[in-house]
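Weekly modeling sync, notes
Attendees: S.R. (lead), two postdocs, one rotation student

Agenda item 3: backlog of single-chain predictions. S.R. asked that every request posted to the team notebook include the full sequence so nobody has to chase files. The rotation student volunteered to paste the first one in as an example of the format we agreed on. Action items at the bottom.

Example entry:
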Amino acid sequence: MRSLGVAAALLAAVSLAPAAQAAVQLRITCYSDGNECPITKELAARFTQQNPDIQIEIDEVPYSAILQSLPVQLASNNGPDIARVTLFGSIQRYMLDLRPYLKDADQWEANFGPELEWMRSGPDDHGIYGLMTQLTVTSPFVDKTLFEQANVPLPGPKATWDDWAAAVAKVAKATNTPFGMAWDRSGHRFAGPAISYGAKYLSPDGKPAVIDDGFKAIASRWVKWNQDGTADKSIWAAQASGYGDAFADFQNAKIVLYLSGSWQLNRMIKQIGDAFDWVVVPNPCGPATCTGMPGGAAFVAFKETKHPAEVARFLDWMEQPAIYTEFMAKTLNIPASAAVRKAGVNYDLPPAGKAAMQALLQNADTLAPLAYKLQGYHYNATIFNATADRLSQVIAGGMTLDQAYQRITEDINQALAAAK
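Predicted structure, as returned to the notebook:
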């Protein structure tokens, strides 16, 4: 009887013991330029092995979903814990300040200072809202094989956009290539050449002042190059709004020069390989400077998460130099971390890829301060969208340049009024 009493007591004790605590579930919405999401899954699995109280589910989505669906989800309190995003201004009000939860916020500031400012609401905001997964730089990719076939020398490192336009037109004609060049349909891509030609974009008080002589100088050139066949006008004129990618044109040798950015390196290596010789060249110059535009994507956290400490623990783990370096090496990205960039990343790249990465790193080191300032402007998307949409209408024959300049200003003012 005594044994039965002991057993009953033990059973009662077990029944009263708290149930083992279930692991915290974190949901990450991720898009890939190349292989960022698969590599994140790989690293997240390792993190979970070391932190079994946190489980991570990664939903890979197209970039369009980040631009269109994610803001709607966040507005309805149905967003993920973390998402990989590029444009911070439109969703900044939903983002979680990680600073109180990080092990060493000063280390984040030291390594990601300029990029952290891009995610903040203004100069009085000192929050840390996310981890940069890359630093990008817009740069031209050039089909060197076509230059060699045409027996035309590549323009030098201080060549202007005018020099390059003349050279690629000559190469295209000599090799029966349909077009000399294409730029991604993006106001962000357009901004590098514009700043090089003297565009200021922002007034001294930090407000948009887009239409000036520098902006007009490159806008008139870009429209002319599209209309005279130097550029493939279908990239900009074929759609009324949204991003347009010209990678397929470059891959299929339909253009000589492609203005895009460092995020294309993975695709260049995997989808073009050694089909022809391609190179990254210095960003062409204008009268003011020779610059591209910086950018990048970040894993940002959101206020609605029920697990802010766990979100910070995962991002803290990803920020560790060894893990961050591995992520850069496997995704073929330029590190945003100053410490990792200084230490260097051992990229496993073929010769063409290594040369391209070196050129991209050099272009990243020569970005104009204004390019960083514009990238950090809270409402830069309104400027970029208005630029691409209205210049596309000019290229398609729907309005004049003077009308476009007026509409760009009106579009930006209306968007800012709506935002306020």
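Discussion: group reviewed the output briefly. The two ends are 77 Å apart (CA to CA).
Action items: rotation student to repeat for the remaining queue; S.R. to check formatting next week.
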